[in-house]
Amino acid sequence: YTPGVIGLTVDQRLLRAADLFARGHLRKQVKDPELRTALTPDYTIGCKRILKSNDWYPALQKDNVEVLHSGVTEVRGNKVVDADGEEREVDAIIFGTGFHVEDMPVASYVRTRRGQTLEDKWEGSPQAYLGIAISDCPNFFMLTGPNSGQGHTSMVFMIESQIEQVKLALDARDANGGGTIEVHPGAEKAWNAKLQKRTETTVWTQGGCSSWYLDRNGKNSILWPDWTWRFRMRCKRFVANHWIARPGKRAPAEPEPAKAAA
User: 138: how many CB neighbours lie within 10 A of its CB?
Assistant: First the structure.
């Protein structure tokens, strides 16, 4: 059972059916009440990424598996130490700690026209117009940029939509002499203010968890907080006054070949 977009983005009461289904699955596969309690989330379903598996709970109940209730704080030789100070010998350590999405590596290398890195410009909360264009970055476009990620459907749909908007922007640039084009800072600011207002009702900000969907400032700078068809329809429309196009030098026209004398 997968909760729909309305439950994730508008009304968490609609997630109740998914929550009951998940808890029923847990009760069916984990008979030990103590272990079941340890595995029961204390946040609204959908607040973190929903993983579907028939093998996860049985794996945790094998004889050679122990579920720790506190995190690992230290490694001493071939032993790991948990938050209670207890040591356990291990043969290998696998770090499966999640994702770093908002602190994208490219932000340290791409600079604006004024020489500022995107990392400094964003100050921990990435933002872009339609997830593709950043003010003061002429002729620079991203795909799957800030607030265009998905928690419930295909990223290919979003990428195709963004490509259409990029093409419209490039066509506008070329029509203006083939110079540069960049999003207007006011349009970028208004777009992201609207997004952050929209994300206030979503489970990702109201669900009571800390996840990789949120940046270090507590903002959702990763996921698109609405219907994907609305994003596609918006990307089909090019708003000229949301962009700054600067003309370039047009290539000189090739001279016509000389006509042969009669």
Answer: 18
Tell which residue, 242, 9, 8, has the closest CA to residue 132: 242
d(CA 134, CA 184): 8
- SS3 state of residue 18: helix
Four-residue CA torsion sign, 62, 68, 72, 77: negative
Rounded CA separation 50/185 (Å): 36
| Residues near 53 by beta carbon (within 8 Å), at least 6 away in sequence | none
Tokens representing 261 are 């004398």
Give the separation between CA 7 and CA 44, rounded to whole angstroms. Answer: 11
Which segments within 9-136 are labelled E, that is strand? 72-76, 79-82, 87-89
242 contacts 187 by C-beta, under 8 angstroms: yes
Q: Residue count of the chain, please give it.
A: 262
DSSP bridge pairs for 223: 149
Full pLDDT tens readout for the chain, 262 residues: 556 788 888 888 999 999 999 999 999 999 999 999 999 999 999 998 888 899 999 999 999 898 888 888 999 999 999 988 899 999 998 887 767 777 888 899 999 999 999 999 999 999 999 999 999 999 999 999 999 998 778 899 999 999 999 999 999 999 999 999 999 999 999 999 999 999 999 999 999 998 888 999 999 999 999 999 999 999 999 999 999 999 886 544 555 555 544 4
Q: In whole angstroms, what separates CA 98 from the centre of its chain?
A: 13
- Bridge partners, residue 180, by sequence: 246
Euclidean distance between CA atoms 97 and 151, whole angstroms = 18
CA distance 168 to 127: 20
Torsion of CA 20, 22, 26, 28, to 10 degrees: 70
- Tokens 């309690």 belong to 37
